[in-house]
Design brief:
The protein has about 325 residues and is α+β, with helices and mostly antiparallel strands. It has helices at about 10-30, 40-45, 50-60, 90-105, 155-170, and strands at about 5, 10, 110-115, 120-130, 135-140, 145-150, 150-155, 190, 195, 205-210, 225-230, 235-240, 245-250, 255, 265-270, 275-285, 290-295, 300-305, 310.
Length: about 325
Amino acid sequence: SSGINAEYGETSREISMKASANNQSSLKFPGVIPQKESTLEEYDDVPITDFGMALLQGMGWEKGKGVGRRRKVVDVIDFTTKKRTLGVTIHEEEAAEAMKMMSEFRLGDYIEITAGPEKGKSGKILSLSLETSRCIVRLPSEEMADLAIICIAKGDKMEYLRQRDSYNEVVPDVFAVPKIEQVDPKSTKTNGGNSSKIKAWLHRDLKVRIVSQEYRKGRYYCKKVDIVDIVDLYTCTCRSESGKLLENVPQEILETVIPKQRGTLVMLLKGEHRGQIAEIEDKDSRGERVVVVTIVDKEAVTASFNEVCQYVGDAVR
């Protein structure tokens, strides 16, 4: 039959099709009463912060009531984030202990390394990061180590000096035969394409600039990125300003970034203050030099542009 419904002006076939659609909707979403389809204008009127709530209400949800066939109300699962770089298996007690330990240490403190490959060595804290619960430590060998706070304990200055003196002691071997390395004059690069004269300066939490037009077809040429991980002495992983991770970025295509604003944090990359965090005090763009004040010793240091780099970690001042 294709008669007309006088009240609504619809044919019986149209009424039948609507009833069938409503039944199918009820089968897909039990307990949901079919509603009129929203228009694009109505979607635009909903604030972005309330969009998720509007979707739930559109599917029949009411505050204080459950969803689904049985309308069961379930408890909300609270998600607690863990401190970055503490590890996925760390327990809440260990995370709390790490936060407690952060309050016990200060810049310039002497420590003893209690875990990891440098276990048993002494060190001096150059920077502390509340965000990552990590610290940068100068070892007796004058090298730098990036350590989790749970891997150190209070140390002794005299022990640090004793270990440092032992590294500085050079005992000549009168029976040793001098080793002469044969260098190919046509090849000036070693160590996987890195010049042997260029020292490694990469460090996590540095802001650097990509200066290669060949890397990734030039998409990141002259773009600033943050170093988030160190692969080896001359290779790192970076994060772009859009949040994309760039893996296996070689040091040779990176240059340091010198901040413009006074008081911005930088890291000293060379010399006796290497690894220390400092604040920009003055900048000479023509001479390509800066004057910085170290956070630990409050010492003024003059350095060239290639000896410092902007530091984006959160150093405890």
